Amino acid sequence: MRSKTTYLLLGVLAALFLASPLSAQKAGQITKATATAAFVDQPPGRPNLKVNEIVAAPGTKINWRDALVTKSGGRIRAQLNDGSILSIGQDTKLVVEKHDEKTQQ
């Protein structure tokens, strides 16, 4: 018969697994951005959680499924892992669904 401690430990491990987001795959990083009108929206690790909005700044990491969002007057320049450059103008939302460095898609 298993002890209460074993069941408690299994419950805690299950809760930690469900609470942590899946490992995000890196797609690139921001190289330039306007200070107040550009954001990176990172999807939550689980459904029904709020999107994590980060002000875009040089060095901000971009992962698969992140959305690059600019408002009026906003601009973002990003470099993908394969060296490709993305330049995004104002009032734009671009979602990085997947970036495969080997096939450049």
Instruction: Give the low-confidence spans.
Output: none
- Main beta-sheet strand count, sense and barrel state: 4 strands, antiparallel
Cα end-to-end separation: 53 Å
Percentage of residues in helical conformation? 10-25%
Overall form: elongated
Q: What count of helical segments does DSSP give?
A: 1
- What is the oligomeric state here? single chain
Task: Give the gist of this structure.
This protein has one helix at residues 4-19; strands at 26-33, 38-42, 52-55, 61-63, 67-70, 76-80, 85-88, 92-95. It is of the alpha+beta class.
Description:
This protein has a domain at 24-95. It has 105 residues and is of the alpha+beta class. Strands 4-1-6-7 form a 4-stranded antiparallel beta sheet, with no helix packed on it. The chain contains 1 helix and 8 strands; from the N terminus they run αββββββββ. β6 and β7 form a beta hairpin. It is 15% helix and 35% strand.
